[in-house]
Queue: 2 jobs
Job 1
Amino acid sequence: MKYVITIGREYGSGGRFIGKLLAERMNIPFYDEALLTKAAQESGLSEAVFKNFDEQKEGLFSSGMGMYSYDMSLGQKVFLAQFDAIKKIANVESCVIVGRCADYVLRDYENVINVFICAPMEDKIKRAVTYYGLKENKAQSEITKRNKKRRSYYNFYTDKEWGKASNYDLCINSRIGIEHCVDAIEAYVKSIFKIK
Amino acid sequence: MKYVITIGREYGSGGRFIGKLLAERMNIPFYDEALLTKAAQESGLSEAVFKNFDEQKEGLFSSGMGMYSYDMSLGQKVFLAQFDAIKKIANVESCVIVGRCADYVLRDYENVINVFICAPMEDKIKRAVTYYGLKENKAQSEITKRNKKRRSYYNFYTDKEWGKASNYDLCINSRIGIEHCVDAIEAYVKSIFKIK
């Protein structure tokens, strides 16, 4: 049986890593940045455009929502291509997809479980300093900024509210440890889809 | 090892029932209304006061927050007695506690896992009509009203936001089935506390 687990996550929560471990446990493919490449290939937009976009997206929402700016127009092309890619992938295989509003994109698909990962600020700071090289004294404001951006991005592209429990099937706070989160999601998914 | 699982929940989500099943699975006591009685006995406030309060609480927040009204003063006594009872219980035994801001009351306790249960409106309506005898044509507005009240109550007594994922360890949407929720919480709790 085919199923998809989408994972939304706060920056610094370890959500991407949880998704990766979960995909390994369930023995299904894992998509995050790889999606970009796949989307690029399938949409006909060149990889150079995506790379350029990825480098520019810092400024995506900097002038209000930037809706009519060159950036947003490029951004919208990229996002729509990603949305297509997510649907194509979900049509053919079970997988874990991190980010990219995949929960919203697949809202009419069956067998989709939507997960959200959050964490206390002190954990996010620790993770961002250790794994993403943020400076300790600037980490908190950077994390807040990035999560505001994720929220804006999500709320703009969907009709739902990022990080609100009722928006997802399962929300887990990773404060208690990454492995325990993976255990819970695995148990939940196996329970729902009757996987031994 | 002693641990407590608190469960916050939307009215109509099945959260109370999930808590009951979970307590049975974990073989630990379950507290909800029983808390009231216990609080009454231990606080010296008579059961008659609690009963009276329970019947009046419909109107608790009806005039703004009613902060200086007779109701609120009675309400505050009852709540504080409940908060004491929650702490006393958490000091002596593992248990599942539903509602009553138990997550906030036990915020400085170790080995506390905070869970929130939500559900889509159509499921809440079905449950409220089937189990709580609400009339179908009035169910949605009644559910909305009751959940607004829970939110107000929670946000008033705590410094946190009801139903926001980052506020809890685990949030589960019961749309997928009560048993699957219990499975996921059980797996999560056992993983964290290394219970076989």
Job 2
Amino acid sequence: MNSFGEHIKLTTFGESHGVALGGVIEGFPAGVEIDLNFIQSELDRRKPSHHKASTTRKESDRVEVLSGIFEGKTLGTPIAFIIRNENQQPDDYEYLREIFRPGHADFTYEKKYGHYDHRSGGRASARETASRVAAGAFAKTILQKKGVEITASIKQIGTAKTPEEIEHLIEQTKAEGDSLGGIIECVIKGCPAGVGEPVFGKLQAQLAEAMMSIPAAKGFEYGEGFASATMKGSEHNDVYILDEYGTDETSAPAGNVKPATNHNGGILGGISTGQDIIFRVAFKPIASISKPQQTVDKKGNPIELVNQGRHDVCCVPRVLPVVEAMTALVILDRSFFL
Amino acid sequence: MNSFGEHIKLTTFGESHGVALGGVIEGFPAGVEIDLNFIQSELDRRKPSHHKASTTRKESDRVEVLSGIFEGKTLGTPIAFIIRNENQQPDDYEYLREIFRPGHADFTYEKKYGHYDHRSGGRASARETASRVAAGAFAKTILQKKGVEITASIKQIGTAKTPEEIEHLIEQTKAEGDSLGGIIECVIKGCPAGVGEPVFGKLQAQLAEAMMSIPAAKGFEYGEGFASATMKGSEHNDVYILDEYGTDETSAPAGNVKPATNHNGGILGGISTGQDIIFRVAFKPIASISKPQQTVDKKGNPIELVNQGRHDVCCVPRVLPVVEAMTALVILDRSFFL
Amino acid sequence: MNSFGEHIKLTTFGESHGVALGGVIEGFPAGVEIDLNFIQSELDRRKPSHHKASTTRKESDRVEVLSGIFEGKTLGTPIAFIIRNENQQPDDYEYLREIFRPGHADFTYEKKYGHYDHRSGGRASARETASRVAAGAFAKTILQKKGVEITASIKQIGTAKTPEEIEHLIEQTKAEGDSLGGIIECVIKGCPAGVGEPVFGKLQAQLAEAMMSIPAAKGFEYGEGFASATMKGSEHNDVYILDEYGTDETSAPAGNVKPATNHNGGILGGISTGQDIIFRVAFKPIASISKPQQTVDKKGNPIELVNQGRHDVCCVPRVLPVVEAMTALVILDRSFFL
Amino acid sequence: MNSFGEHIKLTTFGESHGVALGGVIEGFPAGVEIDLNFIQSELDRRKPSHHKASTTRKESDRVEVLSGIFEGKTLGTPIAFIIRNENQQPDDYEYLREIFRPGHADFTYEKKYGHYDHRSGGRASARETASRVAAGAFAKTILQKKGVEITASIKQIGTAKTPEEIEHLIEQTKAEGDSLGGIIECVIKGCPAGVGEPVFGKLQAQLAEAMMSIPAAKGFEYGEGFASATMKGSEHNDVYILDEYGTDETSAPAGNVKPATNHNGGILGGISTGQDIIFRVAFKPIASISKPQQTVDKKGNPIELVNQGRHDVCCVPRVLPVVEAMTALVILDRSFFL
């Protein structure tokens, strides 16, 4: 369960405190020009930056490609890349050895494996998503040439929806030693009609699986989503109109007929319509907070837990490139034959 | 993309207007006693019944098992079953030949395949879910013996939340020739801790994929779901307490320590905690309505579409066993080694 | 492990003494005209016939297609078919209940599963190959249209190589109550160059796996096979010549250059060359013989086993369509993108 | 098609003249002590050594493990390892740019991909098997603890069968500028009964696929193999005897009854019997020879090809660890649940 995708398959490896992270991409077509600066720049978007919501930890995250590229072009062979880990300070985490951190995977790892990595999660660490972002950048390279643009943006952080409100809320919450959740909206423009499969391989099912595999994601919806539950069929149905000017190339096989509205979020019956594909992902607040928490240690002794590490206030800004990367992997995988 | 699951794999086949539907279940363990009456009774739950929200079409849906069972017990070999189709009246659908029905898969099928089955959807028809319900009943048989109970219930239909309100709203909407969406909540009781995988195989990702593969599903959330976006870490984190009475068997490997609350919906880091697993699925209103719709035919000529078939007002009541079946398949597949 | 193939996937089901055998073919393209008489005729080739090597058991083996075909053409949806079992006389096998039949899977099934099906093997029965022959006939339908012809023929039965020798040897062996093995050679004509993958998906690896999954197969070789072990590089290498007349369409992408000889059996580096693909499969003598065998029962008591059933003297004639079917499934699966 | 195995899955990457080769092993159990010296020593067995059949090229082949091991033990997470390439002299191969080397994959790569890597094969190079040997060493580590010993040995090189004959033949052939093929026999001792699956997952099918994926392999047989074709059932059947001394632990579930002989090579009905598993693999002579070959270049001009590189006379000695590694991967994968 370290692989994702069928035609374009990513396998990730690496613990957050091991020698290196990385991935192998199989099925990537030959002859694609790769700009390594672009791959690196996508990774940089995930780094703890000057954004107020982020930790001050330093991670350089330089990607090295080991195979699959020759003279700047892909060979059609597996693309392997690694990102060496630096700045390993396991002692930072020593005080957590006897504690299940609330909201983290420690408790379930112990239940499943009989042990867990108190050095910050091993494979469960959000650091694993660096490999996804690198792989997603390869996928984006192809999609961009085909005119597919994927853009994730912040819909809300906590209850705040405008940049000013968000900045203010983050500062206030940081001062309280607390953390925030949020909602990301992702729009795919230029995805051709016909992507997705009718039964188990519905495009929304693939996107939902991809999004819910991102740490801290708690919900997924597309088109009208949960709001559709209170709409009537006559409101929700997208009736068809004649596209008089025929500007919409994607409607070609069915003449100039196209949906007049997009309540369905660009997917009908599991297959893309050629309209914008729109979905949202909800993220819970970050589990590591500096505010004291009343909990018990592994033996049941009451303790007051105060996190000492440097942590983000909200994961949402750093998750944006992860949402885009997973989306790019899904769309490239599912549009493989188009 | 007609298969679901890894260790316990279901492959479904059959068009809604063909000879038969059915499925093959691979990986099902040997020696399990099967009550065919239970399998049939689960299928019966999906039938258009006297429920006010349902069509008056008659479907007998008798399941026949072809292999994998001998003298009432499973052999460990593939279990194949079929449900023959009856009551095929393709002429009923003749008037739809030149129309993309709003909200249906006709438009995207035409885009993808260059043709579609105007006789009500082929594989896209919700009738395909009958095979899932039959397979889910086999999965439930094992899970029930292990003490795992899966219950899907109606959380709301349209804006109505109580039986009286729901009944009233359905009658009113039926009279209007319109349709309703709704939200289903599913609770899994007795699922042991340790089900699910850390990276791409997170339990919530598998459940989300399963739910979003059900026709008309528009959103998935677990635990606090979308509401978690506006919570703070100090509110959302489930701290740990000592389970003094040690009644909770599932907490054994970690002593008597257990989460005090369940904001996380029974899953942490992709792995079940041993608590109740709780998730919700949003469904859009049924696309087929008798209320006239102003749309265009395939050539772009404006028409007023009035559906002549008998249709459900809301899919939610009939989807309950489908949600339970897909959940059972996920949990059995993912707890295979426990 | 009841499935075979990646792009065109066959899943088989059914016990030799259950209700029915059958299969589901996924990934089969839409719009292919299917001649059900051809499917049936391929199945008939596997039936115990007047061939002197075969049993006198009667098996009608009528195939019924349940899905995936509409008005004589494939829909692109899963093709499910069944073959109902007849003539079930489990009492015929009652005397075998306490015995591991020499050369059969009884012993290993008991070791693996703690039980076995004394009614003639369950899934281990060669009867399972009927589903493969039916599926192979669908695959052949496409391949024939593309000009690919697959022909398996008897290379030798026992030590006999000509029809007269073979007929004589079979009669003699039948009189002795004994059985014979043999070698089948299969030639694929018209397979385009480029089929097969470089590393683990080599065409010879896929063919070897397919052939060694046929009951009683003991060896596989292609091209010069085992004989190549005693050849020198200068003898075995296929040098290249100019194909002056350019009649060989398959050599087009590399101009008119082609291998002068075919020691490599039509495959180089795991990929087809466009020449005839030639391989051979060795089969052991049938395990069920009427000649008395000195063995012990399950408790270790010495017994003289005399098989009472009607059995083939040699499986080779009936295996020919199975070899062709498995070959067709491999070639269609592997040439999917060509 | 760069992955092998189902429960224990190896994915390999790397071109023979790229930055590095390597692999990722998924599904490897946690808590296994790993001796990196043993992993390296297995790799060293594959290196061109003082063996007279081998090239004098220098390859240091140092393995570096990037993930999956912590404090000398496996974590249960993916094990990634790399072997950096050295000694890259692409100019050595410049004279081959316009030639399809006889017996190599150049011709089929050009047919399939429209190009090939004249720098000695890219992924087709036998150098890719270094990753398999490293992964096989991990698999052997577990199998050895379970008492499973896998030993591949030279059965013959050319027509020579004794060390003296072999040495003499190799020297003579080297002097002629020619090359030799051979046969390797592999014996698996201590494999428990019950490994393998009845239908498509037969143990012999998995072994055949694994062996035929090794470059230069031309044939596979197990037990009596091709010789069984000329045996009678009464000769080939392994009757059962009472194992009076009960020394054979593996026969436990069936009491003390065991096969008296092993014509079947340790596999019956696709499942291991608990006896030694014995199979043989035929390899063709190495394609690169220094003896002049009359062939044509890519344009059809007659040329005399004289290989300038340093090449092995026979691959068989260096292939022994590859055969063992692929066998170990199959047996570990297939005995995963035992």
